């Protein structure tokens, strides 16, 4: 379809970047990026009209996002850029070639282009040796200033290296280290840095990438107190086990595993340092509150449980519920990884699968009808009924009402 539209408009259409890279590596990738040798926005708008897609243009960048009716997205870029030097003056139009356009990219493996026009369909353009680097499993920059132009590429380099089991080419690694030494990575803005870190922590196996970040001196660019020592290695290994175990519980509670990895990465930091990291990364207030606000309390409660287990103490369902209820799941999992105790994991599993969703069945109005006064008394009564239900003393609503009457 895209090739046909290109033919109709008389412009060359190429799939570029990650899509082509992954196609050649036989990896799934649904993010299609295309480049139009011409006006990409005009192409996107015409294509969108013909195929019932929504189009979001970004005039300043000459790009557009095409959203298909089923929600899939297509990124369209132009090799023709228009610069408005000052308002009211005609734009300077620079017609860049595809080669020139691809030269601005990060690594050779991301510079391959696949023609989609009918007469050259499937022809692969490889200006910078990307195919050979894919074969040799190498991540290589296109020129010496790549990390200077965009220091976030240091994180991207590690991400591709670890995800694809590639190696940084030695010269590229040298350039990356120089960029770190020159303080360029340290100066990356908080939001961008956070974005890169999240992407790394969202990888299938973030441990290796984090280790590599430490090796290449990237962790201190986030905070000088961050390290990845043997204790971190142990914590990360344990967390991998905890997350695998959690998946097997098949719970519906939404979980963003990257937040748990994030907590593990910040494990060594004290509270003021935590705050510094959050500020450095310009972390949204809500996220900060969710994963850090309750950290101290959560770890203390888990510690309490652990000690009780150590003493051989019986823990009732209602006690367990009271301790763990309302605790963000990320913190629970992080706390479990920290404790490394199987018995505690069994208990938390029992809470998550059997207790977390239990509720008292009688309503406040029903309790008022029974004569319980409005206000805190209702809450206290509901808590009492819930505890009784959790501990198996009552099961039905009638039994709850009966207990409330007493
Ligand atoms: N790119 C770049 N420098 C950056 C970010 C992106 O040169 N700092 C280029 C890369 O060549 C990349 C393309 O822009 O191929 C698209 O970026 P993105 O969608 O982030 O990369 P993908 O290669 O698709 O990576 P992923 O598989 O992780 O989505």
From TrEMBL:
Name of the protein in its database record: tRNA nucleotidyltransferase (CCA-adding enzyme)
Origin species: Trichlorobacter thiogenes
Taxonomic path: Bacteria, Pseudomonadati, Thermodesulfobacteriota, Desulfuromonadia, Geobacterales
Similarity comment: Belongs to the tRNA nucleotidyltransferase/poly(A) polymerase family.
Highest taxon above the source species: Bacteria
Residues of the whole record sequence present: 469 to 874 of 880
